[in-house]
Amino acid sequence: MTESNNKKLEQLEEQKKNNDNQAITTNHGVKVSEDENSLTAGDRGPTLLEDFHFREKMMHFDHERIPERVVHARGFGAHGEFKVYEDMSEYTQADFLTHPEKTTPVFVRFSTVQGSKGSPDTVRDIRGFATKFYTDEGNFDLVGNNAPVFFIQDAIKFPDFVHALKPEPHNEMPQGGSAHDTFWDFFAQNPESTHAVFWAMSDRGIPKNYRQMEGFGVHTFRLVNKEGQSYFVKFHWKPLHGLESLVWDEAQILHGKDVDFHRKDLYESIEKGDYPEWELGFQMITPDQEFDFDFDILDPTKIWPEDQIPVKRVGKMTLNRNVDNVFAETEQVAFHTGHVVPGIDFTNDPLLQGRLFSYTDTQISRLGGPNFNQIPINRPVSGVHNNQRDAMHQMSIHQGQTSYHKNGLNNNEPHTTPKEEGGYEHYQEKVEGHKVRQRSESFKDYYSQAKLYKNSLTEAEQQHMADGFSFEIGKCKSVMVKQNAVNQLNKVDRQLAEYVAQNVGVDVPENNEEVQSDASDSQLTLEKFDIPLLGHSVAVLINGDIDAKTLKDYAEVFSNNRLNFAFVGQHAKDLTEEVGITETYSTASSTIFDSVVILSDGNELLEEAIDFAELSYKHKKPVVVSEVASKLLNHSKIQLDAPGVIVSDKPDAIVDAFERFRYWSR
Ligand code: HDE
After folding, report:
1. Catalytic residues
2. Is the dihedral of CA 545, 548, 550, 555 positive or negative?
3. Mutation test of ligand 1: which of 154, 161, 195, 355 has the most ligand atoms closer than 8 Å to its C-beta?
4. Which of 358, 366, 372 to mutate for ligand 1's pocket (most ligand atoms within 8 Å of CB)?
5. Whole-number mean pLDDT of the chain?
């Protein structure tokens, strides 16, 4: 990892436990003489209750699992650091955003939403992107997603939405996906979900990995500077390794070939030193611009088009260290939208307001009480002092007689801190109104931005989205649900509704009800992002005897370009001796790699190699074929003159082949 004064890692270091050269003890410190056999009355007799070591070991094991997160159960995280590019004190007083010389430790957890802890990584779903900044003024959590909008507008609907999305209660199916009746019934009956569903059905719903995802804070937050001036802000994470997605067929194959595909990618990139990076971006408007738009800025189902309100890139985050223990760190980390620091504040977005309750509440059952802030991964680096006491799993030994404010016995310590000296003070927004249970009229356009999103995509991306809808709605059993879902699509886009109606076997709605929207925000397409070669992968398919020198030449080119690679042969043994290869046609899968190179000694190509390469070709990936191998591909589906297929014996042909990462026109 990079050199930095990382206070959080130093803090975690103190908690680490290493068992090397240690005697096994009980949890109460008594050395254990025997750990293979329990204490019995005679060789073959009953086990004795007095075997305290056995009882303790078993009791602890019996309680090893904790409740998984009610949503976002499946996830993976890493440590890193954040640095702001320049002093942002014009907009915010937050210490970590105003000191470019400071490095702020961070912990990020990525996740899927629907599936349980053991579900596959590559399901179609929105991804969570939660960041904890351990700032010198306390923890700031940016608990975002990889889509900029959410499925509902008011937090009171969250349990309903999640019940519809999660596996159906009568049979607990499906695991990890939204292709089922209750989800599409929710979509049809709750039109506020339309825009977010369009994002989920697009390529954004099947990201290629965590490194190449965007992140969004979704809600409108506030920045507040020292003078008390406030700006509305939307937070963004822009990936510096580009934005890429899987192909749906590939994602489905990966469910079986490698359920851990995304976590493995993140873990291995960090181990290798290819550290994932993102820039933090702000879209900002002043309070007097609040009503300047044709959407309500408090509505979390709306984006702020980047062509109207550009994203200012303010700093960089680098993930550079894997965790030591997934349970202790990734599983026990507790994010909360309410963890803010001076200079960052909330708005009246009704979804955000509800989240402010939910995130600490849920930890009470998940982490077993209100002291979860004392778990090492959750501890701020800035210290904790207050009069909160006791409760389950209290780790601190508080000294002294008093635990109340105000007190005279202890000089009224601990003391409060005025705003000028860093005490958090809420922004003094003027609020008035009647107590009502009703949705603001300004939240009621559900379709324009869904249309905007569709229009902004390239033709290939629009086709993927149409096929995504067809697959998911097609999986529903209820004809009523399918018809209602297509009727909703008809309100956004007539052509899409017609296409999906035909695919899923329901009627095309009689009238064209599509919303008119000529706006376009071309930032939304995946192709807008620069994508470096770094971190992409190549499978070199070996057919017959290829000399070690040739393979070493390929390896050198790949390493120089920071590409990951594997030589894939029939038997690992044949290759490992020469160039250190471990993959065989039975262990590797085309879906795990971004490209293939086909090498041959002139004898017939292996059937497994042809299958492997054809799947890569089908998934529109770059293909390089050696001159000899090209003569042997006559009967395969690979067309040598197709875009992205290069016939060459030069190892660096792969760099040209990666001119595009997918050849959609193939
Ligand atoms: Fe969450 N969400 N959420 N959510 N959410 C949780 O907190 C909730 C929402 C998000 O890696 C839970 O610790 C409500 C939007 C992420 O640990 C829970 C509402 C966005 C994660 C919860 C929302 C998110 C969560 C479950 C509507 C994107 C995983 C376990 C008002 C901006 C964080 C937990 C991690 C997790 C509640 C909506 C993102 C139950 C009530 C919008 C990334 O507290």
Report:
1. 72, 145
2. positive
3. 355
4. 358
5. 95
